[in-house]
Amino acid sequence: MSYFQERNGELFVEDLSLAAVAERFGTPAYVYSRAAFTQHYLAYAEALGSHPGMVCYAIKSNSNLAILNLLARLGAGFDIVSGGELERVLRAGGEPSRIVFSGVGKSRSEIARALEVGIFCFNVESEAELEVLSQVAVEHNTVAHVSLRVNPDVDANTHPYISTGLKENKFGIDIERAPEVYLRAKSLPGLEIKGLDCHIGSQLTQLTPFLDALDRLLLLIDQLAEKGITISHLDLGGGLGVTYRNETPPEVSVYMAAIKEKLGDRPLSLLFEPGRSISANAGVLLTEVMYLKPTEHKNFAVIDAAMNDNIRPALYQAWQDIRPVKARDGEKKVWDLVGPICETGDFLGKDRELAIEPGDLLAIMSAGAYGFSMSSNYNTRGRAAEIVVDGDTAWLARERETIDDMLRGEHLLPG
Ligand code: LLP
User: Fold this and answer.
1) Which structural domain, as residue segments, surrounds residue 180?
2) Annotated binding residue 14
3) How far apart are alpha carbons 410 and 389 in whole angstroms?
4) Measured between alpha carbons, how far is 99 from 55 in angstroms, rounded to an integer?
5) Are 262 and 331 found together in one domain?
6) What is the tens place of the pLDDT at every residue in 126-174?
7) Within 10 Å of residue 397's Cβ, how many Cβ atoms?
8) Do both 206 and 334 map to the same domain?
9) Closest C-alpha among 277, 274, 275, 368 to residue 320
10) Going by C-beta distance under 8 Å and a sequence separation of 6 or more, which residues neighbour residue 16?
């Protein structure tokens, strides 16, 4: 169910009207539903059930501390890709022993810090990284738990920028070379082999690519067993796609049942790194219409949210629904919703049929994932506030950025 519903012509988040949120906190603002985050996380945890394993929320999709803390309290693990994300998890009360560290470019200092706090596993993306990881572990008199991220050469059928499992992508180790690389890992003093990992892409709305990848991983696990290498966990990477418009991704329970069936009675624990399917439909970007600019060719509505707040439409041609917060009578027209930034690509939606006037509030839907977390200060625009709603109560989870916040750390030349 959606926690963003219309009641008597007004859009609500849980039991609070979005108009009330805008009145109190201003716009643009990201507004999240606590219940939606909870429900989406529990869908994974419950589908995993008693099978050994972990649901490691991919914090890159939405890394607000309040959200991480909420998920930590529900028992989530975390998938991180930087030292910064590691510190976020720790400050939010996440358990180091439930963290997996992904990404192609982990620095020595990031690796050292992750070893120091005792993370669960490093998802290693290259042979060069394997060598460095072993060296850093030896220097710190410890052993790093590793999983190799393999590239199973499966087409995820998603946008090319978020497709990662093909041979031409920068991610992972070619599955053909994996046995050799595992043997190397086994010989290195600072490493202990634990798992096998893959992530073939994001916003996948069909099961087939996941299951094809799994078949290839299981074959590899058998090959490795013959070489005396035991894999104890399988990490299947990011989660399912979501409905932005009319996509119909499978239910998490169906996805998980299909995986468990393929595993049969192999003694493998399962890790998942879902981001979008937990956060996307748990948040909206609330914005106000500033100016209407009808022209001969196009009707532009200038809104106070821009590509610095949500870059997805500009970067991936992503479509996100845009709904009025209060339905108004009057003639609907077709509008391009554009932001104040000096770029033609600064739009949040095109050709949307809406009845709007300046001062009206709009909600950009499905904005909880890769929205705020990809936002920037382009055009020296402060980043939006983030609000978490629980029932009829709103909590300021991140303050709107001020000019001082943005200019902190910049220095004039001495003379
Ligand atoms: N694990 C790894 C190693 C990943 O690279 C990603 C996403 C995930 C997990 C989480 O995938 P998810 O469950 O969210 O599909 N900014 C793009 C999406 C980039 C995805 C990057 N990696 C967007 O806004 O569509």
Assistant:
1) 103-272
2) no
3) 35
4) 10
5) no
6) 999 999 999 999 999 999 999 999 998 887 776 666 666 666 677 889 9
7) 21
8) no
9) 368
10) 389, 391, 392, 393, 394
Pocket-testing residue among 276, 312, 316, 319, ligand 1, by greatest number of atoms within 8 A of Cβ:
276
The SS3 call for residue 260 is helix
Q: Is the pLDDT of residue 326 over 90?
A: yes
CATH number at residue 195: 3.20.20.10
Token pair in block for residue 244: 């932005």
Same-domain status, 243 and 285: no
Q: Which residue has a Cα nearest atom 24 of ligand 1?
A: 370
Q: Which atom of ligand 1 is nearest to the CA of 203?
A: 15
The order of strands in the sheet holding 10-13 is 4-7, 10-13, 16-17
Amino acid (one-letter) located at 25? F
Rounded Cα distance, 384 and 309, in Å: 7
Residues with CB under 6 A from ligand 1: 58, 61, 79, 102, 162, 199, 202-203, 237-239, 273-277, 312, 316, 370, 374
Q: What is the dihedral angle through the alpha carbons of 393, 243, 69, 29, rounded to the nearest 10 degrees?
A: -50
Point out the ligand 1 atom lying closest to the alpha carbon of residue 277. Answer: 13
Residue 78 forms beta bridges with which residues? Answer: 57, 99
Taking a C-beta distance cutoff of 8 angstroms, is the pair 46, 255 a contact?
no
- The pTM of the full predicted model, rounded to 2 decimals, is 0.97
Q: How far apart are CA 164 and CA 148, in angstroms?
A: 15
Residue 293 resides in a domain: yes
Query: Which contiguous run of DSSP H or E holds residue 350?
Result: strand 347-354
399 and 310 both lie in a single domain: yes
Is residue 287 over pLDDT 80? yes
Closest residue by Cα to atom 23, ligand 1, is 370
> CA-to-CA distance for 32 and 389, rounded, in angstroms?
6
